[in-house]
Amino acid sequence: MSDKPHYGDLAWRFGRIYLGVPARLATRERVYGADRFPRAGGAVLAVNHLHWLDIPIVGVASPRNVNFVAKTEVHRVPGFGAYVRTFGALAVRRGESDREAVRAMRQAARDGRVVGLFVEGHRQESGRPGEAQPGAAMVALQEDVPVVPAAIYGTQSWTVRHPSLCSIAFGEPLRFDGLPKNGKGYKEATVEIQRRIHTLFDWLEDVHRQGRPRGLTPPV
Q1: CB-neighbour burial class of residue 3 (10 A; exposed 0-12, middle 13-18, buried 19+)
Q2: 33 is a domain residue
Q3: Residue 189, phi then psi, degrees to nearest 5
Q4: Is residue 116 helix, strand or coil?
Q5: Which helix (DSSP H) or strand (DSSP E) does residue 193 occupy?
Q6: Fewest CB atoms less than 10 Å from the CB: which of 25, 32, 89, 155?
């Protein structure tokens, strides 16, 4: 199934230029494994979160437009909330059950779109990926779509005065055929998603030590 036309696609077309290009210049972003990204059909992009720069970095690195999930507080900011919604952003109430958000995420995946989730639910101050929440697994299992695990490295130390080099690595898409569509299945799938993200992050750390050579293939 291919992507259905979406009102946010035009915003993405221009956003990749006026947001994506400056983000790439500011971080000298390097992308590994983008060829693994499913070119059509519903999917969940599961990635760690270390800095506000992660959003434009992921957006410009992704081969497809992404319906990011953002906390409701962002959507309520006058002007800015409407702006992020032009990109197809979905709202979620952080730290509590939000059935409406789950329905919106499932509908986006069902419509053949990519649902983007920063899996920890908030930025990590430790400088490393944290514990994944079950949202990505829930959408993937309920809608039978793959999860693309991804890791961002470098933004944990990025500042305006001292911009660091940043990279993103995409893992092989994960499918969870055979797992039950309930809490047990969500937990098991979430453990695997978290493991893949941490593996990719550690791999990127080593790649940065090597000077970020091009053409490397991230671990599965």
Answers
A1: middle
A2: yes
A3: -65, -40
A4: strand
A5: helix 183-209
A6: 25
Q: Is 54 exposed, middle or buried (0-12, 13-18, 19+ CB in 10 A)?
A: buried
3-state helix, strand, coil in the chain (%, to 5): 40, 15, 45
Query: Is 218 among the domain residues?
Result: no
Q: Residue 134, class by beta-carbon neighbours within 10 Å (0-12 exposed, 13-18 middle, 19+ buried)? A: middle
Other C-beta atoms lying within 10 Å of the C-beta of residue 135:
23
Rounded to two decimals, the pTM is 0.89
Element (H, E) at 47: strand 43-47
Identify the domain containing residue 15 by its residue range: 8-209
Say what the pLDDT of residue 1 is. Answer: 43
Find where tokens 């947001």 sit. Answer: 19
- Rounded CA-CA distance 40/42 in Å is 7
* Cβ-contact 13, 83 below 8 angstroms: no
What's the pLDDT score for residue 8?
75
Give residue 2's pLDDT: 45
How many domains in the chain?
1
Residue 79 within a domain = yes
With a cut of 70, list the residues of the chain below it in pLDDT. 1-7, 71-88, 91, 93-98
